[in-house]
Design goal:
The complex is a heterodimer. Chain A contains no helices and eleven strands. By secondary structure, chain A is mainly beta. In chain A, strand 9 and strand 10 form a beta hairpin.
């Protein structure tokens, strides 16, 4: 069955540093991979999508890479801010809109 | 984009009772998705709801426990039946954009069963 794993449950970094989150998957060849942000008590909010034929995508301070050989995506937040503190989820579309999510990485950015 | 209103936002229920969660979307959508997020866990898809047909349930979820209605293209309900403490979770409804490349979520219903 499809499996998605994200790196360590919690990541603590200092303000201004770059946060790097990892998403690994097995037993699947997705056409694209998505990243979401989830704040406590809220539903996930879409951040970025990267397709299988794209190596890298950027949006403001966010950068996502996608290595289909390694079956891995990296999610970077540069010049991190305390407001970036949240849980970040990666997700794969497995069939007609159905999403399978990783367990999430909780990011804490300290001032 | 889509705006999803979900209610109730939270509830505390007695075991053995049922709770119906409502999900309203501000635009017509073909498919609506219901997810469960257990404490400290990620989202797990419960079922896909299409208007005019029975919902399609994922492995581990059954209609008797989680009946779903989809009366029109902007509305759906999920009922959690005969609740037990193990059903304590956040329940979320979701829709996708036309290209099915971005999902939009309601704010979730935090259910506590006592």
């Amino acid at each position: 069955s499809q499996k998605i794993e994200q790196n360590s449950e919690a990541l603590n970094i200092q303000e201004g540093k770059t946060a790097t989150l990892t998403c690994n998957y097995t037993n699947y060849s997705p056409a694209y991979l998505q990243w979401y942000r989830q704040d406590p008590g809220r539903g996930p909010v879409f951040l970025l999508l990267i397709r299988e034929n794209e190596k890298e995508k950027r949006k403001e301070r966010l950068k996502v890479t996608f290595d289909t050989t390694l079956k891995q995506s990296l999610f970077h937040i540069t010049a991190s801010q305390p407001a970036d503190s949240a849980t970040y989820l990666c997700a794969l579309d497995i069939q007609g809109g159905k999403l399978i999510f990783g367990q999430g990485t909780e990011l804490s950015v300290k001032p | 984009s889509a705006v999803i209103s979900q209610k109730p936002s939270r509830d505390i229920c007695q075991r053995g009772t049922s709770l119906t969660i409502q999900c309203q979307v501000d635009s017509q959508v073909t498919m609506m998705f219901w997810y469960r997020q257990q404490p400290g866990q990620s989202l797990t898809l419960i079922a896909t709801a299409n208007q005019g047909s029975e919902a399609t349930y994922e492995s581990g979820f059954v209609i008797d426990k989680f009946p779903i209605s989809r009366p029109n293209l902007t509305f759906s309900t999920l009922t959690v039946s005969n609740m037990s403490p193990e059903d304590s979770s956040i329940y979320l409804c979701s829709v996708e954009d036309r290209l099915a490349t971005e999902a939009f979520f309601g704010q979730g219903t935090r259910l506590t069963v006592v």
